[in-house]
Specification:
Largest sheet: none
Number of helices: 10
Radius of gyration: 18 Å
Length: 231
């Protein structure tokens, strides 16, 4: 891609990221709404503060990632945008692996498991989306997009596993709700990105794949109405 086009993509996507940051910069109302949507009834002040910190840790990175990643990949399409959101989630989860300052909640007697955070059907949908995308791109010799799809799938899996193993912080129910959200959104973004990258619009088959991917994305990222029984 010519340098002037790269610069243009960088400016546009950077402005998009900045707009997202400004419009969606979280406050107490956002934190409370997030917890309630993910099964935490009447969250207290400490739980809301935990949710606000969770949101800030993710959204802070959006402008910089939107500025850098799409130009590097030479694309500002939907798949690249979703992959950029995934990278923001990965950075946030990596930072969350650090031990929390101050008093920490005691560890649960039953350790967290992957299936205790993410239902099996969600993992199956994520695996099918990634496998279908990689197979299609490999058969059609689209190697650059194949690398992007593979990286997207790996990042999605990494976020999911990091959400399971990160140190426990705050009240158990809020901690569990945020873990579930991280993992499910990561798998959903992975499905959306792999579908968009692996099946570019161009024929009826691609259209059906995109519709299926969008349906799976909406199903996976829908907020949980109640927390898993393990909570």
């Amino acid at each position: 891609m010519p340098w002037d086009n790269v610069l243009g993509v960088a400016v546009i996507t950077g402005l998009v990221g900045l707009a997202i940051l400004i419009v969606l910069w979280p406050g107490k109302k956002h934190g409370k709404r997030l917890l309630e949507r993910w099964g935490v009834a009447e969250p207290d002040a400490a739980e809301v503060e935990l949710a606000v910190r969770y949101l800030k840790r993710r959204r802070l990175w959006y402008p910089w990632l939107f500025l850098a990643i799409p130009p590097l990949l030479g694309d500002g399409g939907t798949g690249t945008i979703l992959a950029t959101l995934l990278l923001g989630g990965l950075i946030a989860e990596l930072l969350a692996q650090r031990p929390a300052r101050g008093p920490r909640r005691e560890a649960e007697l039953a350790p967290r498991t992957l299936l205790g955070i993410v239902p099996a059907w969600i993992l199956v949908l994520g695996g099918l989306a990634a496998a279908g995308s990689l197979l299609h791109l490999g058969l059609t010799a689209q190697w650059k997009l194949l690398a992007v799809a593979a990286g997207t799938a790996l990042v999605s899996a990494a976020i999911t596993l990091l959400a399971v193993r990160r140190p426990a912080v705050g009240a158990a129910r809020a901690d569990l709700a945020l873990r579930c959200r991280s993992a499910r959104v990561a798998v959903g973004l992975g499905i959306g990105a792999c579908t968009a990258v692996g099946w570019p619009v161009g024929d009826f088959g691609s259209f059906l794949a995109v519709v299926a991917g969008l349906t799976a994305f909406l199903a996976v990222t829908a907020p949980a109405k109640r927390l898993p029984a393990a909570a």
